[in-house]
UniProtKB/TrEMBL annotation:
Highest taxon of source: Bacteria
Family: Belongs to the PriB family.
Pfam families: SSB_1
InterPro entries per the UniProt record, alphabetical: NA-bd_OB-fold (IPR012340), Prisomal_replication_PriB (IPR023646)
Protein name: Replication restart protein PriB
Keyword field contains DNA-binding: yes
Alphabetically ordered keywords of this record: DNA replication, DNA-binding, Primosome
Subunit structure: Homodimer. Interacts with PriA and DnaT. Component of the replication restart primosome. Primosome assembly occurs via a 'hand-off' mechanism. PriA binds to replication forks, subsequently PriB then DnaT bind; DnaT then displaces ssDNA to generate the helicase loading substrate.
Keyword DNA-binding: yes
Annotated function: Involved in the restart of stalled replication forks, which reloads the replicative helicase on sites other than the origin of replication; the PriA-PriB pathway is the major replication restart pathway. During primosome assembly it facilitates complex formation between PriA and DnaT on DNA; stabilizes PriA on DNA. Stimulates the DNA unwinding activity of PriA helicase.
Length: 100
């Protein structure tokens, strides 16, 4: 038996790509996106520039909001990571986002 563990991610990133708003077989709005993050952090006492591109997906009202955002706009995204059944890399499932 597995125990419950936290799977929460908060990421400040810009919207690099947004797919067309689509609907799941159950009729739920959905949108795919690619988010890009860049920052400078200190790791092991050294300053380091970090860049990351993340695939993301949103459903429902969050998908409808995300589909209206401008490319390049900066947001603070909250959600969880999941690997699709046919994929190798985790995808951020966006549960909410707000202006950073």
């Amino acid at each position: 038996m597995r125990t419950a563990a936290a799977n929460q991610l908060v990421l400040t990133a810009c919207v690099a790509e947004i797919g067309a708003l689509r609907f799941t077989p159950a009729g739920l709005p959905a949108v795919d996106a690619r988010l890009e993050h860049e920052s400078t952090i200190v790791e092991a006492g050294q300053s380091r520039t970090v860049k990351a591109a993340v695939k993301a997906v949103a459903f429902g009202a969050v998908a409808e909001r995300l589909a209206r955002q401008a490319l390049g706009s900066l947001w603070r995204f909250q959600g969880f990571l999941a690997t699709p059944g046919n994929g190798k890399h985790p995808v951020l499932h966006i549960q909410d986002f707000q202006q950073d």
